[in-house]
Amino acid sequence: EVQFVESGGGLAQAGGSLRLSCAASEFSFDDYAIGWWRQAPGKEREEVSCIRAGDGTIYYEDSVKGRFTISSDKAENTVYLQMNSLKAEDAGVYYCIAAYGYDCIGTTFWGGGTQVTVSS
User: pLDDT-based confidence at 120, cuts 50/70/90?
Assistant: First the structure.
């Protein structure tokens, strides 16, 4: 099954930046979509961004468009989420996720999560 090593979470000021990293094993970009979901306290998890399987097209949740950028290093089976212009509402636990299928909705594998805290 897909396994993840997530890193890059931490504390940032509003307007600042963080870069999350997810190194995946037992994974291929051809067969799996990979991306990020997040969960704020008291709220349901929501999809943030996804690299779709095969064609590599990208999805962003509306609230992060223009601020977040997802990218990958296929040689290292790693996906990144560059988060700029952070807002308080971006705070929460971010999960690297893989789905056996075209997009990041469906049968999923979850990382353990990394905490993102936004001050001010």
Answer: confident
Q: Tell me if residue 9 falls in helix, strand or coil.
A: coil
Nearest to 48 by CA among 29, 71, 65: 65
- List of residues 6+ apart from 13 with CB closer than 8 A: 86, 118, 119, 120
Q: Are 31 and 100 in contact (CB under 8 A)?
A: yes
Closest CA to 89 of 40, 42, 22, 25: 40
Residue 45's nearest CA partner among 94, 78, 118 is 94
Residue 94, pLDDT score: 97
- Residue 27 pLDDT level (bands cut at 50, 70, 90): confident
The owner of tokens 């089976």 is 77
Q: Is there a contact between 116 and 18 (Cβ–Cβ < 8 Å)?
A: yes
